[in-house]
Specification:
The chain contains 6 helices and 14 strands. With about 230 residues, it is α/β, with parallel strands linked by helices. The protein is globular. The model has no long low-confidence stretch (mean pLDDT about 95). The protein has one domain: Metallo-beta-lactamase, Chain A. The strands form 2 sheets. It has a 7-stranded mixed sheet with strand order 6-5-4-3-2-1-14, with helices on one face. Strands 7-8-9-10-11-12-13 form a 7-stranded mixed sheet.
Amino acid sequence: MKITYYGHSCFSAAISGKHILFDPFISGNELAHAIDINSIEADYIFLSHGHFDHILDAAAIAGRTGAMLVGIFEIYQYFTKQGLEKAHPLNPGGQVSFDFGSAKSFASLHSSSFPDGSYAGIAAGFALQTAAGNFYYSGDAAFTLDMQLVPRWAKLNFAVLPIGDVLTMGTDEAIEAAKLLNVTHVLGVHYDTFPAIKLDKAAAIQAFANAGITLHLPGIGTSIDI
């Protein structure tokens, strides 16, 4: 599966001719200054929670591409009230079929509010089952034993996990999460964007390798196959 990384927690998966984009925060990320959001393709945009560093460019990209926004009910309401007609609610525990496959939402242990401070529901992650492979994106998660529920729904090819620590899991907990998820490949996200979440990349890659897991840290704007 082709994965393109756009910095912070934003990435896209190319699946059966569709582009599934997650948590677009690009124009506000100094590390992603070379990325033109007007060049990004999207048929679906999944939003894990309401924090600005996960939804900043969602409306602009959805408005230009006609992509369907997917998120919990409060996020669905937030964007439909802004006039975006293509949106689909998906709360933790729920499952929806799309033309690329199916998506199931899982609760993620993290805070969530919109940029104006209003309630954004609870944070979530998503597991996708597709013909090209299955993966789980945890969103901004703390490590919880609930993660062992995800592979009961789908045998995963890889997981997308935050590794920057302080605001989410760090390296050690992400390794434990990968073990519960039964994956040997992890795309690391949510690191380096802010001073508090600077990552020693070499140390992180080695720590994962010591656990028998490959940690993928592609450069911003680059694509890899997992």
